[in-house]
TrEMBL record:
It comes from Stylosanthes scabra. The keyword Signal applies. CDD domains: AAI_LTSS. Residues 1-27 form the signal peptide. Residues 31-113 form the Bifunctional inhibitor/plant lipid transfer protein/seed storage helical domain. Keywords: Signal. The keyword tRNA processing does not apply. This is Bifunctional inhibitor/plant lipid transfer protein/seed storage helical domain-containing protein. Coiled coil: none annotated.
């Protein structure tokens, strides 16, 4: 069942990102000039379970993807709060705990992420 749920999550991300690409506005956003937070959210597919359940273990592939976003906290927040993430069932209160759960020493502690603060 978990494999089925993960596949549906990934397919949902792809579909939403494809739709959002149609309506993309040119300009530099939180994640750079050539992408959007919705497009970047697809890269966090390995974090599907960890972003919905704070007691779920965080995979190494999830931590590797989040670490890439950790270089740009504004992008990480935009991705975690994106429409793609919301429509995929991501709980922002849980998702923002992933950097801490990955034991990143240089995570953006205290960074304001919308109404949330990174632990």
């Amino acid at each position: 069942m978990e494999g089925h749920t993960k596949m549906l999550f990934i397919l949902g991300l792809v579909a939403i990102a494809s739709i959002s690409e149609i309506y993309r506005v040119e300009g530099a956003g939180e994640c750079g000039k050539n992408t959007t937070p919705d497009n970047e959210a697809i890269k966090l597919a390995p974090c599907a379970t960890a972003a919905q359940d704070e007691n779920a273990s965080v995979s190494q592939s999830c931590c590797a993807q989040v670490k890439k976003f950790g270089q740009n906290p504004a992008c990480l927040c935009a991705v975690l709060l994106s429409n793609t993430a919301k429509m995929s069932g991501v709980d922002p209160k849980v998702a923002i705990t992933i950097p801490k759960r990955c034991n990143f020493a240089n995570r953006p502690v205290g960074y304001k992420c919308g109404p949330y603060t990174l632990p």
